[in-house]
Amino acid sequence: MKIVITGANGxxxxxxxxxxxxxGDAVTAVTRPELDISAKSDVADLLAAVRPDAVLNCAAFTxxxxxxxxxxxxxxxxxxxxxxxxxxxAAVNSVFVTVSTDYVFDGSNTGFYTQRDQPNPQGVYAKSxxxxxxxxFAANPRSIIVRSGWIYGHGGTNFLSVMPxxxxxxxxxxxxxxxxxxxxxxxxxxxxxxxxxEADLPGVYHVTNGGEGTSYFxxxxxxxxxxxxxxxxxxxxxHAELKRxxxxxxxxxxxxxxxxxxxxxxxxxxxxxxxxxxE
Length: 279
Hints:
The protein is α/β, with parallel strands linked by helices. 39% of the residues lie in helices and 17% in strands. The strands form 4 sheets. A 6-stranded parallel sheet has the order 2-1-3-4-5-10, sandwiched between helices. It has a two-stranded parallel ribbon with strand order 6-9.
């Protein structure tokens, strides 16, 4: 396939580009300086020139707390940019796959959120991502929305990604013991994004690694087990104690109702994926 990947400097985009290249795709990966997805005409021009079979949108404003004071930039990337890509894909008959978030849910469900659950985003970041979902489908019914969460991987700068390095250096870390999610290895998510693009079945998909999910503290404990690090370095804390600017769902575990029914293989357990990451 001929594929355009946005947000090329990001952890997920790099994983997607690497996977697509490995299986023989013609990949055009663009960074934000090369393509600001909020610039509608630039997006249209690029897709008209490349005419890809599919676009994997990994570009996003991901500073959850920063979004509370920079709403304009957040919506430009997560809502307007998504809409621009969806429109441009429709114009050149490309499949559009865009990554959304578990944060579109409010966290009141302690079980798994599925596509049957009604989104109820709380913070600016969450609301912008939900707006992006709505605009994508309005602009292009051939859109594929992929909700994921707790994404970590090689080169990642988020807490989940840097935990192993911090623990390996003997640094103590605070990990929240009362917030829950479904960890997702970027390499596994990238592969599924490509599979969804090829399947070309519009809709909303929840894509995470399998298993019962965990807390940040449970994730850190598993890193210690797999890496042979000292669990005494872990300091449990509560989500309330951190007093972060943006609201976050206390529990945002995701499960997909349709992936396996459509023939997609089950995602491997998050513990197995984490073991590969640690290695």
